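help with this record:
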Amino acid sequence: MIKDGENIFETGVAWKIFNETEKELVSFLEIVPFVPKHENVFSFKLFNLILSIGSHIDNIFKAMCRYQKFQNNSDILKIINSKRPDITMYRTAFEPIYHLSSKKIYVKKEPINLLRDYYKKIIPFYGFNKKSPSWWNIYNELKHSWFKGYNIYKANINNTLNSLASLFLLLVRHEESWDKLIDYGIIRGGFFAEAEEYQFKKDIKNAFDYYKKEIDKKSDMRELWAESKLFIYRYPFWQRWLTDKSVIKNMKPWIYRQFYSPLKF
């Protein structure tokens, strides 16, 4: 049971809700694999999932407003004091903080060809700096008028993935979630060492201290990322390694294969 005033991010409740929702989609994708020709596949199961995810996102935005560091933010106070906050209010408040409209998520695809990339890059909040994301509009169409025209057929794999990826992004970007996600092994990272690379939790937490303060620009931390069953988010502060040719050139081959070859930017 969630106690009144309990922090759903620090206790892991928010992540558990995402995790259970993701399991439902993973189960569906075991039957209908995520490959290009299936992206527009419709299902009543996906219809219910999109409705559920949209409601979760609405609640997560509201819960994020309770973060102590945001209490002097006038746009967030408007949400707190509103009886019916909407996506426009969320955009005004959180886009300047988290820059959601530019954040990339990598969706794991079915490996149908060993020569192809296993990941699809999406920007789930694309255009959020100016308008509502497309999946949010679809959520509202399904919620209020699924019976009109062909609205219900918008409950497809592609739109479900984009909405769930948005929920994932909110959780891994919001600072109150970080400690619990590190404990769960969702947020991962590592330092370079002469003989080996290691990923102890204490090192990841130290790295997040650097990340939050944006200091030590020459740190030998390779990068930080968050990973679920379906999604990967790479924290942008450490992506400079991917373009640093001198670092890549001096990597031991097994480190490059294990940690760099899967994703392309």
